[in-house]
Amino acid sequence: FRGRMALDLRLSQVRTGVAWEEVSIMDEKNIPIRTYQVCNVMEPSQSNWLRTDWIPRSGAQRIYVEIKFTLRDCNSLPGVTGTCKETFNLYYYESNNDREHYIRESNFLKIDTVAADESFTQVDIGDRIMKLNTEVRNVKVTTRKGFYLAFQDVGACIALISVRVFYKTCPLSIRNLATFPDTNTGADTSSLVEVRGSCVNQSEEREEPKMYCGADGEWLVPIGGCVCNPGYEEKGGACQALLTSADISKCCTETQPKTPNKPPSAPQQLISEVNETSVVLEWSAPLRLGGRTDIRYKAGSLGDVLFSPQQSGLGATRVCVSELQAHTRYTFTIGARNGVSQGHTARARESVSVTLTTNQAAPSPVTSIQASDVTRHDVSLAWQQPDRANGVILEYEVKYYEKNQKERSYRIMKTASRSADITGLNPLTVYVFHVRARTAAGYGEFSAPFEFSTNSDPLPLIGNAANSTLLLLSISGGVVLLLISTTVFIISHRRGQYSKAKQDLEEEKHLNPGVRIYVDPFTYEDPDQAVHEFAKEIDASNIHIEKVIGIGEFGEVCSGCLRLQGKREIYVAIKSLKAGYTDKQRRDFLSEASIMGQFDHPNIIRLEGVVTRCKPVMIITEYMENGSLNTFLRKHDGQFTVIQLVGMLRGIVSGMKYLSDMSYVHRDLAARNILVNSNLVCKVSDFGLSRVLEDESEAAYTTQIPIRWTAPEAIAYRKFTPASDTWSYGVVMWEVMSYGERPYWDMSNQDVIKAIDEGYRLPPPMDCPVCLHQLMLDCWQRDRIHRPSFTQILNILDKLIRNPTTTLRRTGGERPVPTLLEPVGGPEFVSVWSVEYWLQAIGMDMYRDTLTAAGYTSPDSLLTLTQQDMASIGIVTPSHQDQILASVQQVLLSHMQQIEEQMQDSMVPV
Ligand code: AMP
């Protein structure tokens, strides 16, 4: 592990106590392993100790102990009530003595009580299936040279399978021409260790170089640095000598052949380093120079690529190749030649080659932008696709601002096409535009500035004059459009009288232009192409798997950490494809990533990337601490307020609206496929079943379909539409309001189909407000055109949330609310929420004025906030947008909770 050092500990060093037994067993791969087992579950008051040998701490200040163990569930052991336990204790004892024979139990300090997790892997051990738990604990060890660990059994049935002890370091690193040594992390989980760097060779200090080693083994906040001495230049973190003219002439005289000897042998050790769409090739000199010193190298490759400094006659053993296609295989050859080599090309025995695949890359900048239909307030822009799109362009972003305002305040608009109508501009004002393209690999660079001035005409110039009056001039890198108005046709003045409302509407339309449509990955012939179009390839070395949290259709689901260059480490879920898969399974598995990668919404599970170039193949998504919604609700039966439950439902419908706006039909919407994070935010996941099951047999089709959640027309004749997703959403509402009860309880699938056909619908769950059950019934309308759309459901839930007093109070026996589609009135509760406090709490107070000026002053108003809205008011940093959106849901939930409490306080006891 980079940044993690294992400490010397083997299980064989663990000494047995009285009750612990050392047992050799076969693991699931039939490899013999040593375990320590204890199982005194019948007798009360157990205290069985097992300890390790002395472990030197090697300068570590905080150590991590990873324990793999199995633990029998007391319920599975007959007749042991009362005495059987399901935990054990982990202790440590610091000592300078590496050979203590006897350590009193009371000298050990407790690290933690360890329990079997809810999540585990099933393993076959011997002839039994066991649940393998992995738990990691850490503790500060600073006082002695080493320590002992101990395990205390208090009456459980445990087998210790492995114990791994390690500490974390920040690895040797060079920043700003200063070297920072391998450094152990600090003693506390929040401590930063200050480290002074030393200047690399041929450099001197500019300002004292310093960095901090964070508790997780990552370097933070580099300050100061060094500069190369005169005559040297910085190259790849080192200072290299600049060539002088004397060097060059010396080099040229040396290349004169003195003795006509033999051609050289092949260059050696060719290595390549790929950086998106460029590659650096480096090699070492041939073993045999042929008795000459005039060696030169020539690089070769198929395709239109650029070699620098040049392709042939290379004196140095390094060449950079650029302008490669993204995500494409290339073979490069380096040939060695000297004055006696024959012909123009090196022969096979005089050359080496390497084959590699370039990375995904963002598109190149948009270069040609044209304007037309210029008026007082509007302009239409059009541009060409970038020269190197490097993938399918998902959208373009236009950034524009008044020239004299610089970039202090600008607007952003997104569009799926290569044109945009910009409205709402000021007359006779010079504007600057930049356009950039986005693919699955991210945004490319913005184009050079494109400037033009609005005029005073209410209508675009028409007729031939329009085109002939537009001139493009190139000035100082940018392009300025001059409007030389010769002929002006004023047809009518009515346009000048646009009502404000209409203008706003137009504006809104332009700010949310051409909604993106989801692309079915199964339309790609090559599944890898599809997945790389929409998902980022992650290097497996950036992933640290911690524990197994579930079992998916294709293999284990684990949690762990992902650290990408220049970013903070984040917690992620890792789904892996189990070994021995078929091509079809691989394709199906990865299709989920190709689908997920196209979405970007706070209520849709976010894809971080995929690992496809090494095994196991993995899909990395954001980590959802509370797991799937149905299990989560069952675990917390009756513990939430109605408003909290409605808050969850709102999140789900908001995600579903986004999917249906993208023309994506989920087909498997159910509480088990909703994941919940630590803030109770619900996100739609599981994009596996959405594929078309066309060529499946009838039997396979009906067994695969989740009958209880599926609309009758989808069961009967596979009519899957957003309206069939609405039906499923009604079932999810029922699951949520009943805390994870199974829809239609233990009725058989056939009975469910029959009952629905006869008009039976699920009754309101206990304490469910009538209006919510009414909404469920609307989702279960037999005729799908009568079911509400997700937009309507979202509006209804928002109204309920705004006026919970009048809408959410009635449950069961009372008279139902006539219709939800009418506006609901009622007293508003006073809230102590403020936009200032909220932004301060999430460290985004720099946007206070921006949000307030745009009217976002209450939790309600935030309900509609989208990424595009933020971009349009000047909140453009993606990480800030994400942070604000993520916390909006949290704000709503706690705000609703507050209202609920006020409602309860205001109730008068009878
Ligand atoms: P799936 O294959 O998506 O059905 O995942 C299987 C199980 O793994 C789920 O039921 C969850 O308990 C768990 N799981 C999947 N993805 C995540 C995630 N992103 N965060 C937390 N748990 C997850």
Automatic annotation (TrEMBL):
Swiss-Prot/TrEMBL catalytic activity: L-tyrosyl-[protein] + ATP = O-phospho-L-tyrosyl-[protein] + ADP + H(+)
Disulfide bonds: C39-C157, C74-C84
Domain of life: Eukaryota
A GO biological process held by the record: axon guidance
List of residues binding ATP: I549, G550, I551, G552, E553, F554, G555, E556, V557, K575
Domain spans labelled SAM: 830-894
Domain Fibronectin type-III: 263-361, 362-457
InterPro entries: Eph_TM (IPR027936), Ephrin_rcpt_lig-bd_dom (IPR001090), Ephrin_rcpt_TKs (IPR050449), FN3_dom (IPR003961), FN3_sf (IPR036116), Galactose-bd-like_sf (IPR008979), Ig-like_fold (IPR013783), Kinase-like_dom_sf (IPR011009)
Residues covered by the Protein kinase domain: 543-801
GO cellular component: dendrite; early endosome; plasma membrane
Annotated protein name in UniProt: receptor protein-tyrosine kinase
Gene of this entry: EPHA4
